[in-house]
Design brief:
The two termini are 27 Å apart. This protein has 294 residues and is an alpha/beta fold. The chain has 9 helices and 15 strands. It has a 7-stranded mixed β-sheet.
C-alpha cells in the first residue's frame, strides 16, 4: 500500500535549455532551436514539466540524507524535461492522489514507477519505460557460482516477507522440488535491508528481490549480483491525463525514443541495474503510448 506523505513537497531542479546552450556555443538561428524544442507544449505552468512522485523507494526514487531527490525516475524525468526544453518540477505526494491529480491539473505527468495495467490505460495515457524484474544477490565473489534458480537448491535464501518476490520464489522452489531438486530454505524478512544484513552475516547464501533494489544494495555492501532480469513482468509507466494528455505523452515518448537511439537510455538503465523495456513480453519494437478509453 502506498506510503501516505503528510505534506505536499515541491522540488524544483533547474537545467539549461537548448536555447541557453546554443547561445553559449555561439550558435545562431531560431530554426535549429525550434526543431529541438517542441513548441507550445500544454503544461500546467509554461516552461515547466511538473511531475508527481512518491520518493520513498530507493534506488528508483528517494530523498537522500541532504534532502535531495535522487533515483532512476527523477533522472529520467530530468533528462526528458531537458530534451523538451522544460524545467523539471517534482511534487512529492502519496500514490493514492497521483492519478486524480492529473485530471485536476495539479501536475502534468505521473513519474513514480506506476505499473502499466490495461484498466489504467482506460482512464489515462501511459508510456511504459522499464520492466520490473527480479535478481539474485549473493556473497562477494559469487562463491556458489549462482547464475539462476537451480543453483539455490538446498540453500538458505532470503527475501522480503509477503511481497511479490516472496510468493514467486516459493512457487519456483515448489516446481524445483517437484522436479527432484533439493528444497531451498526460504527465510522471509521484514525488509530487504534485513535480508541483506542476514546475507552479510552468512545466515542466508542469497537474497531474492527486485533487480534495481538488488543492484543498489549490492553496490553498498560486500555482495555481487548473481543473476538479474529474472521473470520480467509488468512495466512501470509514465502517466498523463486521458482526455488532455495526448500531446505531452507523444512529446515524452519521442524524447524516450531519442534516448534509446543515442544510448542515454541504456546508460541510465544499466547504472541502476534496471531491466530495459525491450525485455517486456508485449514490447512492440518501439516506445508506445497506451490509451484505450471505454
Amino acid at each position: 500500500e502506498p506510503m501516505k506523505l503528510p505534506n505536499r513537497k515541491v522540488i524544483t531542479m533547474k537545467h539549461l535549455t537548448f536555447a541557453v546552450i546554443a547561445v553559449s556555443l555561439g550558435l545562431a538561428g531560431g530554426a535549429a532551436i525550434a526543431q529541438d524544442c517542441p513548441a507550445d507544449l500544454p503544461t500546467i505552468e509554461p516552461g515547466k514539466l511538473t511531475m508527481s512522485i512518491n520518493a520513498t523507494l530507493p534506488p528508483r526514487q528517494f530523498i537522500d540524507s541532504s534532502g535531495n531527490l535522487q533515483g532512476l525516475h527523477p533522472d529520467l524525468g530530468n533528462e526528458i524535461a531537458k530534451r523538451l526544453c522544460l524545467e523539471p518540477v517534482y511534487v512529492n505526494v502519496g500514490f493514492e492522489v497521483q492519478i486524480p491529480g492529473l485530471a485536476s491539473k495539479r501536475w502534468d505527468m505521473v513519474n513514480t514507477g506506476m505499473y502499466y495495467k490495461p484498466d489504467r490505460a482506460k482512464i489515462m495515457q501511459m508510456v511504459p519505460y522499464v520492466v520490473n524484474a527480479l535478481a539474485i544477490v549473493v556473497q562477494g565473489g559469487n562463491p556458489m557460482n549462482v547464475t539462476g534458480y537451480e543453483n539455490l537448491a538446498g540453500q538458505p535464501v532470503g527475501t522480503e516477507i509477503s511481497g511479490f518476490a516472496d510468493k514467486l520464489i516459493r512457487e519456483i522452489n515448489d516446481n524445483q522440488v517437484a522436479a527432484g531438486l533439493a528444497s531451498m530454505d526460504i527465510q522471509a524478512f521484514n525488509t530487504f535491508g534485513d535480508a541483506f544484513a542476514a546475507l552479510g552475516a552468512g545466515q542466508v547464501k542469497a537474497v531474492f528481490g527486485p533487480d534495481a533494489t538488488a543492484a543498489y544494495l549490492a553496490e553498498r555492501g560486500p555482495f555481487d549480483v548473481g543473476a538479474s532480469g529474472l521473470n520480467p513482468g509488468l512495466p512501470s509507466s509514465f502517466g498523463f491525463d486521458g482526455a488532455t494528455g495526448e500531446v505531452l505523452a507523444n512529446a515524452v515518448a519521442d524524447a524516450l525514443r531519442a534516448m534509446v537511439k543515442d544510448g542515454t537510455y541504456n546508460d541510465m538503465m544499466s547504472s541502476y541495474g534496471a531491466t530495459q523495456i525491450q525485455n517486456w513480453a508485449d514490447y512492440s519494437g518501439d516506445i508506445k503510448i497506451y490509451y484505450n478509453p471505454e
